């Protein structure tokens, strides 16, 4: 719903670029999208979020409608293998996604750490994990932050005095920094911002390359 509100607001603020058409909220688990597809069939751009976008794109493709699909949630990058298995790169060609984690091919400390963890704890599964998408890399950077904030909170007050409030106090002082975060912008929480990420990379599925290709470096998110 927040994405829908943002799209409608952006279209209203840019009347020479976009005309807002419609948004459809459906029950969780819906797999048939005929009504939604017909309502949006003439759109140039359709936003579809996360793994349900596989069935949505499939139904658009089967009906011969070819909008540009946009996933603003990092779901398409995280579910890459699922989507490619369902649609192939030809069916996904031109779809856009935002990612909050670097690619497996990027030579950064966190990507190298993620690969080391796979090789140590998931021997023989590295190829499948990497093909699946970027969720493992994103999980590594999320957990690193979670445990570093926990360590900072306990160091500040001691284990006997640790509470949810001390974790919150440590979180709003925390910033990503140091050698491990090479290749990332600086991220932080605030007293009201409850998610760490400040930036995203825009990527595109390309049939020609049989891959998900970066179109940008790190771009700032609107965080207020």
Short description:
It contains nine helices and six strands, in the order ααβαβααβααααβββ. It is of the alpha/beta class and 224 residues long.
How many distinct domains? 2
Mean pLDDT: 92
Low-confidence regions: none
Largest sheet: 6 strands, mixed
- Quote the distance from N terminus to C terminus: 17 Å
Classified by CATH, the class of the largest domain is Alpha Beta
**CATH fold field value of the largest domain:** Rossmann fold
- The SSE string, one letter per element, is HHEHEHHEHHHHEEE
Shape: globular
Number of strands: 6
Task: Describe this entry's structure for a reader.
This protein has 2 domains: 121 residues, Rossmann fold (3-Layer(aba) Sandwich), CATH 3.40.50; 73 residues, no CATH class. The two termini are 17 Å apart. It is of the alpha/beta class and 224 residues long. Strands 1, 2, 3, 4, 5 and 6 form a 6-stranded mixed sheet that branches. The chain contains 9 helices and 6 strands. Helix 3 packs parallel to helix 5 and helix 8 crosses helix 9. Strand 1, helix 3 and strand 2 form a beta-alpha-beta unit. It is globular, with a radius of gyration of 20 Å. The model has no long low-confidence stretch (mean pLDDT 92).
């Amino acid at each position: 719903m927040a994405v829908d509100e943002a799209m409608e607001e952006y279209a209203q603020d840019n009347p020479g670029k976009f005309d807002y058409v419609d948004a459809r909220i459906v029950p969780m688990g819906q797999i048939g999208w005929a009504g939604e597809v017909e309502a949006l069939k003439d759109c140039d751009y359709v936003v579809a979020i996360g793994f349900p976008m596989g069935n949505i794109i499939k139904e658009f493709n089967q009906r011969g409608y070819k909008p540009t699909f946009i996933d603003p949630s990092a779901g398409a990058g995280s579910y890459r293998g699922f989507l490619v298995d369902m649609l192939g790169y030809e069916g996904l060609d031109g779809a856009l996604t935002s990612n909050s984690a670097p690619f497996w091919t990027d030579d950064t400390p966190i990507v190298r750490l993620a690969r080391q963890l796979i090789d140590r704890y998931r021997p023989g599964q590295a190829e499948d994990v990497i093909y699946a998408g970027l969720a493992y890399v994103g999980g590594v950077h999320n957990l690193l932050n979670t445990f570093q904030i926990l360590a900072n909170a306990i160091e500040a007050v001691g284990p006997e005095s640790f509470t949810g409030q001390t974790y919150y106090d440590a979180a709003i002082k925390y910033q990503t920094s140091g050698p491990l975060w090479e290749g990332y912008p600086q991220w932080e929480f605030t007293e009201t911002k409850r998610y760490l990420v400040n930036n995203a990379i825009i990527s595109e599925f390309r049939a020609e390359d049989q891959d998900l290709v970066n179109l940008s470096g790190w771009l700032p998110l609107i965080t207020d």
